[in-house]
Fold these 3 entries.
Entry 1:
Amino acid sequence: MRKAIAAGLLAVGVLATGCSGGDDADSGKVEGEITVLTQRTDIVNTVFQEYKKRFEAKYPDVKVKFEAITDYEGEVRIRMGTKDYGDVLLIPNSVNADQLPAFFEPLGTVDELKDRYRFVRTEQTFDGKVYGLAITGNAQGFVYNKKVWAQAGITAPPKTPEEFLAALKAVKEKTGAIPLYTNYKETWPLGQWEGLRGTITGDPDAVTKLAQDDAPWTAGKEHHVIDSLLFDVVKQGLTEPDPTTTNWEQSKGLLGTGKVATMALGSWSVVQMQAAAPDKADIGYLPFPTQTNGKFHTVVSGDYKNAVNRNSKHKAAARAWVEWFADESNYAVDQGGVPVVLGQQMPATLADLAAADVQYLEFNPAPKGQEGLDGKIGNAAEIALFDGKYRQRIVDAARGAKKESKEDIFADLNKRWKQARATVK
Amino acid sequence: MKKKRIRLTPYLFLAVPLALLIVFTYLPVVSMFGYSVTAWDGLSPTKEFVGGDNYVEIATRPELFGVLKVSLYYIVASAAQTVLALYFAIVLSFDVRFRNLFKGILFFPYLINGVAIGMVFLYFFQPGGTLDTTLRLIGLESLTHQWLGDPDTVNWSLAGTSIWRYLGLNFVLFLGAVQSIPAQVYEAAELDGANRWHQARYIILPGIKPVIGLMVILAVSGSLSVFEIPYIMTGGANGSETFVISAVNMAFKYYKLGLASAMAVVLLLLVLVVTWIQRRVVPEERVDLT
């Protein structure tokens, strides 16, 4: 049984070996050929070619070249060990705020940009400087098939986790659909549950407080509420029977056609689910089932941010693309996302949230020196909040594949979180 | 002049594979040792030197080795695989009808890309998939099962996939060894009245002993470092995480490149030790059938 021993082991070694290129002077003019990295392998040859045409019409001295990358997070982070990571790229989520100046060109100060763009106050900023402009924005909650929920007799969004569970139960009994699909096998969809933090308390400082907390999985706190709901949904048999063989691409069709009723995903998913549904109007969006002061809340935050490579030879042209993409490409609206330019209308995909009078909130910036601290603690504790791996463990325990209780897991998470918090500064 | 060229030629032939080996195996291993004494997140331009801290952490965290239990499934599977491969190699070394067809069928899985195999077997094992359907057809409906979802069967399912994939390679290596036994030996044996079983037992098995020894070493070291099939099929979820998967997660999920490199070094040493023990227990001997 000869396994790819070298491949597995040496990946760690090989991937980190870099090289460096020569430096030509940057002319400072909007000209030259720029390489733009994108994660949208699905539309790089269609929608993005249209963008290229429009951009090159406006800036005739610039030539745009795209590089679409399937495993964007993993691959680009490794490429950033070299100088060759495109002229414009999306900042990988795993880059800590304090690492931004080493890799990206500042686009301006927060004060200069905060009245024009969303998300620049808090996200991908460091030391009062902004390093990236979001391509679009997302709200957080559950994407669901309205028709199936209506068949089960539920028309108003549930207000408490108990109501939510009762609704899913009704879906199971009355329609035979899978009430909630976890997409366990792909792992990252479980990481989407992490995006729900802040929606429970409606507190714009929720993330800062998380990083200052020694026991986030204590009853009543946000992580306890979120992960308990996940545990209970699975425990009560309201999810797919075999989570280990789920398939993301297929799951869109399942939700679209009503074989699956609900999934916990950011609002970016609505457009994709609509595309897989016979009737767009079947797909809706639900807030997390908790209310503060009698109102639902959802967090809006930026998707990937376009940024300029610090080593780019055509920084002016690269910058022009970043701004053009935010101001004129119309990408956010076309993708059903929250617009990046302030003052533009909320998308039709979120009409359900407006109808339920859901309050939007954006997180406040972390105190100086604590930017991205929650992520650092999560990694040091080997929890990796946004990865979904630790939530796989919760699903396993809930379905009885692991002999652990919910309390065991939460106690262990609290312990590791506290230990890691003590080491990360 | 002529003499000199002859001496140079072998080195010219060696240069290309050696260059590839050095660039893609030895250099990364050297840098892996380098990373293993740092605390590095894989991105930051500075790597903080921490000496032996990562090794101390590995030694003081027994749960990191807990995943090695999963390798036991693969060791059992590779034992079965070696026996099967040997059986097929011996049977097909005799004059069997369609033997080339069977050889092809057995070797074919090894030629398929590992990712494709992972995908195919995901459909094979999923509820209502190929395996369940087949069981239903032959009236064994009661055996249908969440092959990957049940923590008691997930590792057997994955190890089974692994047998399917690597059997062909073992088989071809055994077959090559079996066929290298000179035909006169068989003729002489037949004259002495030996049947097929006697030939297998007293000629073939002793004749290919070194290859069997090699196979056992490869099987054990392979089982310790299983990666591809479980990583593609389950991502290490549901109790199927192996040591290499946990090292990869350490590096690319938690961004502890230093600790992950140290884990890789430890695994390398572990494999070397196991191999050394095996060599001591079963020393290599030269085989002379003539």
Note: The mean pLDDT of chain A is 91.
Entry 2:
Amino acid sequence: MDQLFSLIEKIKQKSVYYLIPIGIFVLIFPQLTDNQYVLHVSIRILIYMLLASSLNMIVGYTGQYNIGQAGFYAIGAYTAAIIATRAGYSFLLILPICGILAASMSVFLGFPTLRLRGIFFAFTTLGFSEVVRLTILNWRTLTRGTFGIPGIPLPEIVNFQVSTNNHFYYLGLFLLVIMLFISHRLINSRIGRAWVAIREDEDAAKAMGVETFKYKMINLMYGTFWAGIAGGFFAYFAGYVSADSFILDESFAILAMVLVGGKGTLVGPIVGAIILTILPELVREIARYRLVIFGIAILVMVHYRPQGIAGARAEGRRIAVESEYEAGTAEPVTETSGKGS
Amino acid sequence: MEAILRTENICKYFGGLKAVQEVNIEVEKGIILGIIGPNGAGKTTLFNVLTGTYNSTKGKVYFKDRNITNLKPEKVTGLGIARTFQNIKLFKNMSVLDNVKIGFHTQTKTRMIDAIFRTATYKNDDRICEEVGMELIERVGLKDLKDEFASNLAYGNQRKLEIARALAVNPDILLVDEPTAGMNHTETLEVVKLLEKLNSEGLTVIIIEHDMSVIMNLCHNIVVLNHGQKISEGPPEMVRHDEKVIEAYLGREE
């Protein structure tokens, strides 16, 4: 295990050199294979990359444990399905609507709950995603309930018909690159710093003048926006949506990808999505134990590498513990006197 | 002299515990005010009420003649009151420089759209954060550690970083809560010198401290709290010989 992780460290240190070949490989990948199954799985991986990255913005950067990301994914997917089948607007118009609608729903969720800390927020998001699923199942006039919505037309982008898996692959890749690009820029700005400050210490962030509620809300909207986009893309790709695609398992799977890959880094969720999508595909017989695999993966990671595969947390636990120890010995009365005096 | 910060009968009760009771303080512009008192005297609670971290039970706080009672802490900071924490509250998994950059939050205006397209606003804000941030880090002597994670810093350096971060707010008044706790003699002297320098540049400072040599050397004025009440106030020489203060610290002779 240790050798494996030290290998990862080495790769990370030279990650810039790997970026170019990986980029080229990703770009020409569809040309290398005619195997439609492989392509299909790659597109699913891309969707999960988008979902895991979107969740990572919330869990990894602001530290708000949203465990109902599938709810926003579902909102995006059904928005696309309903508008595309009934109104027939163009793909380029519908896709942003998917994101905007998911983000505006997150305002309803966030307004009463973002003032809560820790586990309470997590519970509410969990409940929210179930509410979304049950609404979909029961609002038959809009969503056709258990029948799902079939016959979603193929997307057309300015007279170009997206039809083959190759097309969808590049479209998904494009969305992911855009998402990562924008996220990267936000993280390295005043906004991203405020997000991370909230994750690290909300009280201190307030003392530095960060309007924590506002920034948590912006963050939640940003993360769920991309979940909505991922949902819209999924609806077009699958051509059919049903509530079964958005059960709680899906939320947990997305969260597992973030945790295994490494929250709080842009690369982490990408790595996590690859591993946790390919793993169940490799061993088809155990695919129905998908969640068991995810559970084990999370446990192993938490034990051996709490920051995730690509995580960037300090120099590991040793130093962090040491500095806490120093703080503890230097001023043994910190906690108690902090409350009293 | 005009009072930059003053309180009127400020009270903070936690249920039956009267942590701060009817305290009146006036902080003149440009001075260093020391707040001392035995453990549990209500010093940090007073800080928390002044900065909006706690809502006061009764009473009022005025900053530059503006009523700031029970404003949210982020608003108070925006007005120009910065603080450090007794139990260090750094952003542990952020670099030293990034910790300081957060302090510029209220002075910068980058919105999402600016960040995505790197507009002039973004570039301007980024330059301020980078340049002034580096200056502040240099001032507290952490220049060589700017890319280190805050959690990896030695204890004394963490306290210095807290001060640098508070200074980034560009405050009119700085509240420091036991800035030299756990520091060795050399580090303590460095902090004292830094605070003196900042004060000579016009910054008003309120300091809570247990190290009496620091308090006596640094402060122009001292407020003594005991059991949440102000028991004495005045220049160091006067407070030092006040019988009530001696009694609070050492107990009464039977």
Note: Chain B touches chain A through 59 residues (CB under 8 Å).
Entry 3:
Amino acid sequence: MLEVKNLTFEVNENGIKRRIVKDISFQVADGEMLVITGPNGGGKSTLAKVLMGIEKSSDGQILLDGEDITSYDINHRANAGIGFAFQQPPRFKGMTVRRLMTLSAGRELTHAQCCRMLSMVGLCAQEYVDREVDGTLSGGEMKRLEIATVLAKPHKLCIFDEPEAGIDLWSFSMLVQQFEKIHLEKKESLILISHQERIIQMADRIMVIEDGRIASIGSRDDVLPGLFKDEGCACPNRA
Amino acid sequence: MTELDRITARILEQISGGEFRQKGAFNLRQNGTALCHGDSEHVKIRKKEDKQGIDVYIDGDTDGEQVHIPVVVNASGMTDIVYNDFYVAEGANVTIVAGCGIHNSGCNESRHDGIHSFHIAKSANVRYEEKHYGEGEGTGAKVLNPVTNIYLEEDAVFTLDTAQIKGVDSTKRETNITMDKGAKLFVTEKLMTHDHQTAVSDMEVQMNGEDSSAQIISRSVAKGTSTQVFHPRAVGNSKCHAHVQCDSIIMDQAQVSSIPEINAKHLDAAIIHEAAIGRINDEQLIKLRTLGMTEEEAEGVIIDNFLN
């Protein structure tokens, strides 16, 4: 279980402190899927980075299965059982897809194992294993590979930052199936940051973040109806 | 079979990746003399009469054979200059594995200058692998100055794969290639420098023949206070195409200069160059750290793969 208590993250901009994440508290139970959504610039991705240790929290506490991991750096959090899929994954000149998958799995992989992992995200291993993770892969291919790196080994908690971004519809359907499968198995807790209705509808609970704060949190049935409600246009010029 | 001392065996392991065997066609040069050598049915190695070095004759029926010609220098203060000429007959398909390792346990400079000339006949296919490595607890410099001249006849294919692994204090590499009609060249140059080391690589490719093509990829990592200078030059004298790409990772207080030069002397010469120098990307480090690696481990993985 993940427990986040009064988490705050602030940056110093020209001597002025600006809070990006403001006193956020929530929990994610074992096997639970929490989808975080909300307007752009609200602090969702920053919160995910703070959970992974990529950004250091200014205040608050993060507990994973009761263990206080607040002071852990990135690799210690990874070794404690947190996986993280980046919204914009980096490219590695000279590194093959097979090598990246091996590093992600933490063990040598057979061709068949590599194939299985890549097919989960709609990539054919035959075409990809020996390719370099460089500019020759498209943004969508990079994104699918990024997700495969997180699925390559079991975690206690997986965080996916906008997994749907840049992925074609066919691959997105495969990805949704994969998330549903993980969710059904209840082996890993999932935090998905998403704007995609189909992903939001999979959630056990939904958390809406606006302006660095939790605007609402609750079960899918409680939060979802209010999310896509047409509140009309407030533009004064509209008749 | 000639018994090898511990240092020679260890250096051979480094420069040949454990593939050197005293069988088939081979020539092991140690401290300026041929320690052992062998011929095969299709590859004959002859000692030069007028100067240091060997002539290697590879006949046209050679198909997939490897020829190993490593050099080991483990005498401190030695300067070894060697001239090796390779004559590859029409239609041959061969891999030549060279490489030089220096072990210097003394205070004097140890140096090896290998001047290699390749005469590649029509439609022959040659892969040439060369690794350079230095080691030893002495203060004497380990210097390697290779000169590689390649002459490609019509439709010949040459793949040049060079790597400076580590431990070479100073290197000045000079590579000259001339290409006839339809000839193809693939060059991969990998270089690592550290501490106060210096490396200079000058390469010139003259594409004289119609439809000749060249792909040159240079990747390097400079650490410590080391300096590197790259100057690949591709000259299109006819309808041809070439792609030159130089990528370097710079660390610590190192310095890298990359000066790619492309020179078109024909309307249909299509030549491209790209050059990039930069530090290790923070996002790459963070990604690998999210897989459980420390920053140092992640850095090592990025460098190893970059120079893969």
Note: The two ends of chain A are 50 Å apart (CA to CA).
